[in-house]
Amino acid sequence: MRIGVIGGGAWGTALAQVAAHEGRDVILWAREPAVVDSINATHANALFLAGVALSPTIRATGDLGALADMDAILVVTPAQHVGSVLAAAPIGGIPLVLCAKGIEAGSKRLVGEVARAVHPDAPIAVLSGPTFAHEVAAGLPTAVTLACEDEALGEALATRLAARHFRTYASTDVAGAEIGGAVKNVLAIGCGVVEGAGLGQNARAALIARGFAEMTRFGLARGARAETLAGLSGLGDLVLTCSSTSSRNFSLGVGLGRGEAAAALLADRRTVAEGAFTAPVLREAARDAGVDMPITEAVCRLLEGAPVRDVIGDLLARPLKDEAG
Ligand SMILES: NC(=O)C1=CN([C@@H]2O[C@H](COP(=O)(O)OP(=O)(O)OC[C@H]3O[C@@H](n4cnc5c(N)ncnc54)[C@H](O)[C@@H]3O)[C@@H](O)[C@H]2O)C=CC1
Ligand SMILES: O=C(CO)COP(=O)(O)O
Where does the Glycerol-3-phosphate dehydrogenase NAD-dependent N-terminal domain lie (predicted)? Predict the structure, then answer.
């Protein structure tokens, strides 16, 4: 099985490592020539996944044309760049496994919708779940959802992308897997704010539970299934990223909670905090769908520079309501 990987950030590199360890023939496309050179010459990606000795069988390239005869391609650029990178990739009907977590600004499309529009002949699958790249690259046990509407293809991909320490659970709920991964990044920023502002463990648990209620309301309105949202790609990933400074989104929130400005926090990042880009477009999509997402609204206000004290005060001052509402 020949696996192409588009994206040489932390996650693309970790997934390439899993596939190479399983004996797959792996070609990884990276945008930065320094990443291509470093993977080919020293079997390392110091820029995005420092400290990991990569399999020497992983070949890196800066030419998207080199992926034209792969059996499957993992798409692992940040969500906002999936459309432009895929448009430049001559990949015809090769199955695409989408691994980015986010919603495209402007179009309000999930990554799967973006990919379908660019490559209508390519079957689409989504790989998502609680997966810090450095843990996966280190071979620590990890489980993910592999969602594909075509059940037979989904099961084949789930089998071929699995490894002893990397369990894939098949699903046919593509929208559910995507929405969980996109929404949890926004909620992780909120949990980071709770941490940074010193609001306590009760507040963090409340935010996770009420955030999951938001994710579920939005997901159901967009055709997701409740059991997917309660699974690895939804609740599982929400719990992971709301609990650890290993999460870039959580860390961004910690800075906001301490009163640092979003623009300054985002300005000198080389790595991506997807929630910062997803939050405003998620707010718009939720308003379009008539779905109430107060935590998402609060995260947007914080990213826009509203003082933490005001935003938290407004959240707490909302009228009391039924928990199931
Ligand atoms: N790092 C992780 O633990 C995980 C990340 N993901 C998702 O994978 C996706 C990629 O994230 P990471 O690999 O962590 O990235 P990263 O934060 O390690 O690296 C940034 C990536 O963005 C790319 N990039 C920057 N500007 C670009 C542009 N204009 N066009 C195309 N690419 C551009 C860089 O080449 C690099 O690959 C994100 O959607 C993320 O949410 C999903 C699961 C785990
Ligand atoms: O998606 C992730 C883990 O599943 C990575 O989270 P961050 O992007 O917040 O680091």
Answer: 3-152
